[in-house]
Amino acid sequence: MPIKTAGERAPLFCINGEPLKMAKIFDEDQPLYGLCNAYNPNFKPPARIEQLAEIYVREMRQVQPEGPYHICGFSVGGLIAYEMARQLVSKGQQVQYLALIDPVFSSHKWSRVKWMMNAFTVEGRRLDAISYFIKRGIQAAASRIHTFCRVSKSWAYELLGKDLPIDLRRVRHAGAIRASHHSYIYKPFAGKGIIFHPEMSEDDSESYIRFWNSVLTEGATVHTMKGIKLHLEFLAEPHLTRVTETINEDMGKLSNS
Questions:
Q1: What is the per-residue pLDDT for 191?
Q2: What pLDDT band is residue 184 in, cutting at 50, 70 and 90?
Q3: For residues 94 and 100, is the Cβ–Cβ distance under 8 A?
Q4: Beta-bridge partner residues of 33
Q5: For residues 182 and 77, what is the distance between their CA atoms, to the nearest angstrom?
Q6: Of 3.40.50.1820, 3.40.50.720, 1.10.260.40, 3.40.718.10, which CATH number belongs to 2-111+179-256?
């Protein structure tokens, strides 16, 4: 999906997240394209992340046939972006920039319990942590209810034979690819990358950095986003602007190099 086609910089391809909002933050000379087949009502996600990444690579190369490529992705989009980069390099292409915004983990050790224990450490004092967990529990319950309502609404649209609006298509799309990203295993990528992650304890942060340096063979630059404790906070302000400004600055440096 072309969001902004004009500009002297190399195009940036964004998988999932909020590329429309990010476009308003980027410099005027930054071309931007969004890749998310949730916008296509007839698209059925394949069973494996590798297959979905292959589809996105084909779509991207219709816009830019040859590298160097610049890719970013949020959440499962970060996982897809990572696999896209691996496939491009395997085809002899150069991936000059890869930014992963809180990419999901499947078989890695950061389980939900691990994240909850980490949050306790981040919050510091016991009473503060208890207050945080209560607040987090309310937020999680509200999120589940909200998601259930949206999924139920999408079923109603289908029963009535109506096309799903884009927000409901994104919900169904995310649900459809959940099984595929749970089975995905990160394999080494012959390149470097930028990683944005929420607050963690010092030990977990060090472990997280070691993991990314083990799969990104040319090194990982890891940004700990202060003030972010929950995954979806990356899409809220002022955090979305902070992340976008960092990517914008990186793209500007690459353009001037």
A1: 97
A2: confident
A3: no
A4: 2, 13
A5: 13
A6: 3.40.50.1820
d(CA 132, CA 119): 8
Q: d(Cα 18, Cα 75) in Å, to the nearest integer?
A: 11
256: pLDDT confidence band, cut at 50, 70 and 90?
confident
CB count within 10 Å of CB 83 equals 25
Using alpha carbons, list the distances in angstroms from residue 100 to 26, 142, 168, 194. 17, 27, 25, 6
- Single pTM value for the model: 0.78
Q: CB under 8 Å to 31, separation ≥6 — which residues?
A: 4, 5, 6, 7, 9, 10, 11, 12
CA 251 to each of CA 98, 243, 248: distance values in angstroms, whole numbers, following the listed order: 11, 13, 5
What is the average pLDDT across 174-200? 82
**220-231 b/e (C-beta count within 10 Å ≥ 16 → b):** bbbeebeebbee
Distance (Å, whole) CA 154 – CA 157 = 5
- Region 9-23: mean pLDDT is 94
